Amino acid sequence: MNKSEALRKAIEKKKKENIENFEELVESLVWKIENKSQELRDLKKELKELTFEDVDIPDVSDCIEE
Predict the structure, then answer these.
(1) What is the DSSP letter of 48?
(2) Could you read off the pLDDT of 17-63 as tens digits, one per residue?
(3) For residue 2, which phi and psi values (nearest 5 degrees)?
(4) 1 pLDDT exceeds 90?
(5) How far apart are CA 16 and CA 63, in angstroms?
(6) How far apart, in whole angstroms, are the C-alpha atoms of residue 8 and residue 2?
(7) Phi/psi at 46 (nearest 5 deg)?
(8) Whole-angstrom distance, CA of residue 30 vs CA of residue 22
(9) CA dihedral over 8, 13, 18, 20, signed as positive or negative
(10) CA-CA distance, 48 to 66, in Å (whole number)?
């Protein structure tokens, strides 16, 4: 193997690594987006199901000294 062939192989290897890194990054981001979307859907559902409940406060006026 001569220097030019070794250089060509090194460049091809680096290009292949860059492509693989890029593909892994894209895949990772897609999964993060999917997980975040699912989290948002779950929160939206929780928000829809949320209801306000009024708390009964006892009348304590007879316990307050004037």
Answers:
(1) H
(2) 999 999 999 999 999 999 999 999 999 999 999 998 888 888 877 77
(3) -95, 175
(4) no
(5) 80
(6) 10
(7) -60, -40
(8) 12
(9) positive
(10) 45
| CA–CA separation, 28 and 11 (whole Å) | 26
| 2: its two tokens | 């001569």
**Locate tokens 């290009």: which residue?**
15
- Report DSSP letters for 3-64, one per residue: HHHHHHHHHHHHHHHHHHHHHHHHHHHHHHHHHHHHHHHHHHHHHHH----PPP----GGGS
Tokens matching residue 65:
């000294």
Residue linked to tokens 């220097």: 3
* Verdict on whether the full-model pTM lies above 0.90: no
